[in-house]
Amino acid sequence: TDGSKLDAEQTGLGYYITYPKTGNKLEFSRRLGPSNTVFQAEVKAIQQAAARLRGMKNQKILIRSDSQAALLALDNTHTFSKTVRTCKRTLNQLGSNNSLDLKWIKAHID
Fold this sequence. Notes:
Helix 1 runs parallel beside helix 3. This protein has three helices and five strands. It is an alpha+beta fold.
């Protein structure tokens, strides 16, 4: 998953899913409003990927993110962010029928 902000007007998110059993791959990206922060984009990317996978059952699912801040916020038991709460709800739904793990990965460097 990834979230980014290119300038004051362009914030976006994306994710890439690989289905190991079939070899199928899915890429998704979309723009967010200019008021969204990079943190919000990162959390929303995780939430959108989890929502896409929500119908799966009895699978081992790994979601990788380069945002330590997003992962720490999702791990925190207390949050005031509606974006984080929505993401947690989606992850809990996905994790209720699957083995779900979130992992930090080093950010990409161009």
